[in-house]
Specification:
By secondary structure, this protein is an alpha/beta fold. About 40% of the residues lie in helices and about 15% in strands. The chain folds into two domains: about 220 residues, Aldehyde Dehydrogenase, Chain A, domain 1, CATH 3.40.605.10; about 180 residues, Aldehyde Dehydrogenase, Chain A, domain 2.
């Protein structure tokens, strides 16, 4: 008997859409993987310049959509993650073969293929720009999965770069964005066997989901940055850097300082210097009032993410000077029960005074036992012995010295790789321990000759396996963003099987054309 329509199993809404996006991305990645270095550079530069053109307006749009941060600061990050990334890597080559004749080895760069990029609401546009730029520089196709709180601005950001890249010669479909995120759709994308790598930037749950997907994943853990100021530090300079860093974009970056650890000899001078820079140091009942506003039971209330110091103070019933940029909240001991020792994505800085630099290192380790292992730490000191002891004892993989950590560990104000994705390594249960950069989205095929010299390596210098496209890449037969693309499909509909078979035949035929 023919089953009733209601009895026919339906796939969750968005799943067919996700599959279509991956198929289109795979098609684009096969074409993109054949491009030569000059074509790749032309495409990446065009996308970067497009990002710079909309950096300011998307900074404003991000604040309007999410309610997080400062538009002018977001513009700076958007520029840094578009033309800034291009300027950093414009002379790097992730495409051409690398010859090592003395070792008898030729390295041939191979792109990952299809990249799924999970992006946060805290740094939406900058992270979208950053991951697209890395994908373009390495000839990967990328599908952006934005946080639902920032879906509109992320969609605009991805479209701006995609249009410029395609106009410069990139295959259509190498940059796609999920315009209406849903759990079934994102899950379908992450678990699709045709996905080559997932790059997850966001909360712990998102990162763990990426690692459980069954596909290779690069994920990062949360921050909770300790910053130590010892007795040898330039106190005025340290105060200026810390306040500027903690106030930057209302402390929305995961690299922002979370707990200030100050050596007792420097405490009074640093506190006075912090006030001069626009910090308001809480006292007595003010501390409890701010904690009561910021923390919901045993966790940080995300309603205060990216809000200003004055907004938080007002909600706590505290009058602060008009020039207040951050709130400093002293507390006695770094213990898990002390909520001020936890990560705070807002301009409230916990502060603890310690009798010596050695005890300060112990306090920093205690902060990172609560959360943030592998992420980053900062120190303001002129003593190389203390700096080395701090860096070798604290379980992080980047230590910023005498610079604000928000932009220091992010590589914008240091010579670390500029990034919106901080690898936390083994300490933080991550597969990457560096700031994410283009090299993490390629593998090398290595041609290896005998080490004993019985077969000499010929001259490969004139050989180039990649080429400038001879003409337009054949269009993908069914683009996932075409009007009328299916959003809900019956799992056992025989017509769907026929359509899939026809599409596979067309795609295979076009692949043969492309290879030829």
């Amino acid at each position: 008997m023919t089953a009733l329509l209601a009895d026919i199993p339906l796939e969750p809404a968005g799943v067919p859409r996700g599959r279509a996006m991956v198929e289109r991305a795979q098609w684009a990645s096969l074409a993109f993987a054949t491009y030569d270095i000059e074509t790749v550079r032309r495409i990446a530069q065009a996308a970067a310049e497009a990002g710079e053109r909309v950096a300011a307006e998307l900074g404003i749009a991000a604040v309007e959509e999410t309610g997080f941060g400062v538009a002018e600061h977001k513009k700076l990050k958007n520029v840094a993650c578009s033309v800034g990334i291009w300027n950093t890597y414009r002379d790097h080559d992730y495409v051409s073969p690398v010859l090592h004749p003395d070792r008898g080895i030729v390295e041939v760069p191979r792109p990952a293929g299809v990249v799924i990029a999970l992006t946060p609401s805290t740094n939406p546009v900058a992270t979208v720009f950053f991951k697209i730029m890395l994908a373009l520089l390495t000839r990967n196709a990328i599908i952006i999965c934005p946080h639902p709180f920032a879906k509109r601005v992320c969609t605009e950001a991805a479209h701006a770069m995609a249009e410029a890249a395609v106009a410069a010669g990139a295959p259509d479909g190498c940059i796609q964005v999920v315009e209406e995120p849903s759990i079934p759709l994102v899950n379908a994308l992450m678990t699709d066997a045709r996905v080559d790598v997932i790059v997850a930037t966001g909360g712990t749950a998102m990162v763990r989901a990426a690692y459980r997907s069954g596909n290779p994943a690069i994920g990062v853990g949360p921050g909770n940055v300790p910053v130590m100021v010892d007795a040898t530090a330039d106190i005025a300079a340290a105060a200026h850097r810390i306040v500027a860093s903690k106030a930057f974009d209302n402390s929305i970056l995961c690299t922002n300082e979370s707990v200030l650890i100050v050596e007792e000899k420097a405490a009074a001078g640093l506190e006075a210097a912090l006030r001069r820079e626009g910090a308001y140091v809480l006292a007595g009942e003010e501390i409890d009032a701010v904690k009561g506003v910021m923390f919901d039971g045993t966790s940080f209330d995300t309603a205060w993410v990216g809000k200003s110091a004055k907004q938080i103070a007002e909600a706590a019933g505290i009058k602060v000077p008009a020039n207040t940029r951050i709130l400093v909240a002293p507390f006695p001991l770094v213990v898990p029960e002390e909520m001020l020792a936890h990560e705070k994505l807002c301009p409230v800085l916990g502060m603890v005074v310690v009798p010596s630099a050695a005890r300060g290192i112990d306090a920093a380790r205690a902060v990172l036992r609560i959360s943030g292992a592998g992420h980053s730490a900062a120190i303001h000191s002129e003593d190389a012995v203390t700096i080395m002891a701090f860096a070798s004892a604290v379980p992080v993989l980047r230590v910023a010295v005498n610079v604000g950590n928000s932009l220091g560990s992010a590589g914008i104000e240091t010579h670390l790789a500029p990034t919106m994705t901080i690898g936390t390594g083994f300490f933080g249960r991550s597969s990457v321990g560096e700031n994410l950069e283009p090299k993490h989205l390629i593998n090398m095929t290595r041609i290896a000759y005998p080490s004993h010299g019985s077969s000499a390596m010929p001259d490969f210098s004139a050989l180039q396996p990649w080429h400038e496209p001879a003409g337009a890449v054949p269009p993908y037969p069914i683009a996932s963003n075409m009007e009328g693309a299916p959003s809900l499909v019956r799992a056992d509909d025989p017509q769907d099987e026929l359509r899939d078979e026809i599409r596979r035949m067309v795609v295979e035929e076009l692949r043969e054309i492309l290879r030829g």
